[in-house]
Every structure is written in C-alpha cells, then in structure tokens.
Amino acid sequence: MNSDFLGVGWATPPTLDGTGQIQLAYYETSVRQAIWMILSTAPGERIMRPDFGCGIHNFVFAANSPAAIGQVVSEVRRSLIEWEARIDVLDVDAAPDPDQPNCLLIQINYQVRTTNNRFNLVYPFYLE
C-alpha cells in the first residue's frame, strides 16, 4: 500500500530535529496533525483562507449542556468532512471530562482512506 498520498509536511508545531533541519510529519502522523490543526483554528483566523477551521470556538462560553455538546459534535464532524479529504469520519462523540467540569473531551474515530487504518483522537475543548 502506497502511503505517499498521505503526504509529508512540517511537523506541528514547527521544530528542528537533531540535525538542525525542520522536523517533518509523515503519513498518518501528518493526517493526525492536520485534524488537530482544523479543530484548533477558528474560521476567520487565517487571512488567506477565512473559511478554514472549525466553528467550535463559538461555544467557548457556552454552558456545559447536552444542546451545546450536540452542536460541538455536529460542527467537528462537518469541519473534518469539509477540510480533511484523506479520512472518513467514522464517529464523533463528546462528553464532559470528569476531572475538569468545564472541559469537553471530543473523541474522533476516523479511517484513513488509502490505507483503511483506523485511528482515534481525543481533543480537549474548554467551555466557559
């Protein structure tokens, strides 16, 4: 199976490796970092791509309620489908973190299209 389609790019955050070169992210790591970047970017934050990102940042001051959780899940799913063509979104779920009452743990289960490998990612999102 050829993983070249998944790409190689700068690691996020940009850092230097042991030889002083820009550290790179390969294949599935590149996909995982792209998902994290989509979720961490609010629409309008990037001047040259104002539509890029995920609208969950509109819920930063929302109450930790089932309605807000449902909207966050819907927005995460929509953003990943729109901005990350290398994956199929299998499931998105969110639940309050039992240790931090104002934190939602967003769990994303996805499958990389070219390799059929399945992964999950948990993204902490802070409310209020």
TrEMBL record:
Listed Pfam families: GPW_gp25
All residue ranges annotated as the IraD/Gp25-like domain in the record: 27-116
UniProt name for this protein: Baseplate protein
